[in-house]
């Protein structure tokens, strides 16, 4: 199996959506959930 990159192994959300629901995503991240932040479909960061 080929590793396609870390960003494909986590939940992916566009930065605009995450900005609108920041409190929710911060609580989920604090609980240990990982996210990939995308901008126009390009991964920017993993939380």
Task: Walk me through the structure.
The chain is α+β, with helices and mostly antiparallel strands and 47 residues long. It has one domain. 32% of the residues lie in helices and 30% in strands. The chain has two helices and three strands; from the N terminus they run βααββ. The chain has a three-stranded mixed β-sheet. Strand 2 and strand 3 form a beta hairpin. The chain is flat and about 25 Å long. The protein starts with 10 loop residues before the first strand and ends with a strand. The mean pLDDT is 84.
- In DSSP terms (H or I, runs of 4 or more residues), the helix count works out at 2
Straight-line N-to-C gap: 25 Å
Q: How many β-strand runs?
A: 3
* Average pLDDT taken over every residue: 84
Strand content: 25-35%
Helix residue percentage: 25-40%
Biggest sheet record? 3 strands, mixed
SSE ordering: EHHEE
How are the strands of the largest sheet arranged? 1-2-3
Q: Rough shape?
A: flat
Note poorly predicted spans: none
Q: How many domains, in number, for the residues? A: 1
Structural class: alpha+beta
Give Rg in angstroms. Answer: 11 Å
């Amino acid at each position: 199996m080929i590793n396609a990159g870390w960003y494909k192994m986590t939940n992916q959300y566009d930065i605009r959506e995450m900005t609108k629901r920041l409190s929710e995503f911060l609580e989920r991240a604090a609980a240990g959930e990982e996210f990939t932040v995308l901008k126009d479909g390009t991964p920017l960061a993993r939380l």
